[in-house]
Amino acid sequence: MALVEQRKKETKFSSGRLRGFSHKHYFNASHIPINMLLHNVAGKITDSLVPSKGYDRAYRRIMGLECSNEKKASMLTNLLTSDAYQQRSRSKKLTGDWIIFKEYNQQNYYLCISPHQENTDELYITLKEWYSSVWSFLF
């Protein structure tokens, strides 16, 4: 499976206690399973045999082919893994972690890699505990 590079632009937090901090998106191989799961569970499975018709149709098409069971298993596996990953990547929907940083005096201070969080205020509290004695000017 070829990894497709996807880079999202860095983004500033616009609300909450992390306002003024920024994040970049970080992705590595450990994020592949969750992306495949999100793609497959969301019911957005398609394949090149039946574009945009979903998993059920793709499954029936593959199972109806005149080929060995091993070939069918290989095609289904590909549909659920590398095809799912590549489709999610092409749609720019890969998920991973955030690299949290803040710019101060034209220099970026990188603080942590964090999973996406709905409650960024808790992340701010943690970062302040970790770094306020070293980089108080960031808080």
Topology of this protein?
Layout: E1 11-12, E2 22-26, H1 32-41, H2 54-63, H3 69-80, H4 82-90, E3 97-104, E4 107-115, H5 120-131
Helix pairs in contact: 1-4, 3-4
Give, in spatial order, the strands making up the sheet with the most strands.
1-2-3-4
Contiguous helical run count? 5
> Can you summarize the main beta sheet?
4 strands, antiparallel
Beta percentage is 15-25%
Q: Please, what is the average pLDDT?
A: 84
* Radius of gyration, whole Å: 21 Å
Shape summary? rod-shaped
Q: Structural class from helices and strands?
A: alpha+beta
Helix content: 25-40%
The low-confidence parts are: 47-53
Q: State the separation between the terminal residues, measured CA to CA.
A: 43 Å
Let me know the number of strands: 4
Whole-number tally of structural domains: 2
Strand and helix order: EEHHHHEEH
